[in-house]
Design brief:
CATH class: Mainly Beta
Radius of gyration: 21 Å
Structural class: mainly beta
Mean pLDDT: 92
Shape: globular
CATH topology: Porin
Strand content: over 45%
């Protein structure tokens, strides 16, 4: 069965990042499997075929039970420069520009919990160096089993996780999509879709299955059900206050993958539905939000060169049945859309280049997107367009120093240019700030050890 899967899953699956959490590549997995980071990742965090198979099968390959090698850590430190300063500071206790930060430091458990039954986990806790707060981060505990269906190899499993799409096997969905290293000191745009906003504020259970219909073709499906964390639990885990949503939040994922030679292509769809209460309420009428997305990924991987490209579009329909009568929104019905296109190249397992385009657009609603200095929208529009270029250097992608062969690092430079921000190119906030004022240069190191 294992041999069938090794042939059929080249470039099968992946999950990663988001949310603002970005720890996705950890030495614990390299230590457990005995493979360098480049076996599982194109640079990092993008997964290779082997990396997707490792995740699909429950993080257990090469392991048995927990050991000291299953623990790891990582830190992200960088320097932020904006085109124009932010009055009052980029964040509390930070200057208005030209700021250094250790924006994230994480500890992990990664790998087998009990390999004989396919039980493994990816568990992350993070200290946010900008908010000065520790919180739980990405969680994915899996029980994965092989079987057959009509003589076709199948891997199925069950997951306990804390974010829609954190279980995903490709690098387009929100939890693991670009930017892989978002700058915590950047000026954020006014709008966010539920599929991203719920990360770490919920806990869910789900099931998934991957069927290899041929040696080169795979069908993947997953369904998860989430509930918001109770208020006291949310605060205890550093993600309070509670997200007020009525009932269960269903999330679903379906994908097709075809692989040939050194190539693979995936196309898929994903969705989520929830019924949040208006701000300040925890009972009574609810609003209705529905996210529906489509994604695609292409990879071409050779020993010393790789190309990867992702596309993601998500449409959110917003029915403000509860918020509109309260005057919290201008419209009864709104839409919010996001599109992200990303292409990257890795050469000699050391040098990386990434280009990405992102746009957010939807209904104008001054109740949702009000005018405010720096962060607001003068015309009530969420329209934000940006271009990001990134250069990376990986000194230890094929193995670290002899004393610690599983350490890895990414030295990076990211430059983001805004064409529109919160609705306009100029005076977008009603206080005279232009979109280009938020252009940002972010450089630093992402160290995993």
């Amino acid at each position: 069965m294992r041999n069938h899967l090794c042939l059929a899953l080249p470039v099968a699956l992946l999950a990663v990042l988001a949310s603002t959490s970005v720890a996705r590549s950890i030495p614990a997995f390299a230590a457990q499997t005995g493979e360098p980071c480049s076996a599982c990742h194109i640079g990092f965090p993008q997964l290779t075929p082997y990396g997707r198979e490792f995740k699909l099968e429950g993080y257990v390959a090469g392991g048995s039970v927990p050991g000291y090698k299953n623990f790891a850590a990582m830190s992200q430190a960088g320097f932020t420069y904006l085109h124009s300063k932010v009055p009052g500071g980029l964040a509390p206790e930070f200057p208005s520009n030209n700021a250094w930060s250790v924006q994230q430091t994480s500890v992990f458990y990664g790998g087998a919990l009990y390999a004989p039954i396919g039980l493994g986990a990816f568990i992350q806790g993070t200290y946010d160096g900008v908010a000065h707060q520790f919180h739980w981060d990405n969680l994915d505990i899996r029980l994965a089993r092989p079987t057959e269906l009509a003589d076709k190899p199948v891997f199925y499993g069950f997951t306990v996780n804390n974010a829609p799409s954190v279980t995903d096997l490709w690098n387009a969905p929100p939890a693991w999509g670009y930017p892989f290293i978002p700058d915590s000191l950047a000026v954020g745009n006014a709008a966010e879709q539920q599929i991203s906003a719920l990360a770490q504020s919920v806990l869910g259970v789900g099931s998934y299955a991957a069927v290899n219909v041929t040696l080169n073709d795979m069908v993947y499906s997953e369904v998860d059900l989430y509930r918001p964390l109770p208020n006291h639990t949310a605060y205890a885990l550093g993600v309070g206050p509670e997200v007020s949503v009525a009932g269960v939040i269903p999330y679903w994922r379906f994908a097709l993958q075809h692989s040939w030679s050194a190539n693979s292509i995936e196309v898929g769809t994903l969705g989520l539905a929830d019924n949040p209460y208006p701000a300040g309420f925890s009972q009574g009428p609810t609003d209705h939000l529905r996210d529906l997305g489509a994604d695609a990924q292409f990879q071409w991987i050779k020993p010393n060169q790789a190309v990867s490209a992702q596309a993601l579009f998500i449409h959110e329909s917003q029915d403000w049945a509860a918020s509109y009568p309260l005057g919290a929104t201008q419209n009864l019905h709104d839409t919010l859309n996001t599109l992200t296109l990303t292409a990257s190249w890795l050469g000699a397992q050391k040098f990386g280049v990434t280009e990405s385009y992102n746009t957010v657009f939807g209904s104008r609603d001054k109740g949702l997107y009000a005018a405010a200095p720096v962060s607001g929208s003068a015309n009530g529009s969420p329209l934000t367009n940006s271009l990001t270029s990134e250069l990376d250097y990986y000194p230890w992608n094929e193995g670290g120093p002899a004393i610690f062969p599983w350490v890895n690092a990414k030295l990076f430079i990211e430059n983001t240019t805004y064409l529109r921000f919160n609705g306009r190119a100029r005076n977008y906030d009603g206080a005279g700030r232009s979109a280009t004022a938020n252009d940002i240069l972010f450089t630093g190191i992402w160290l995993v050890f």
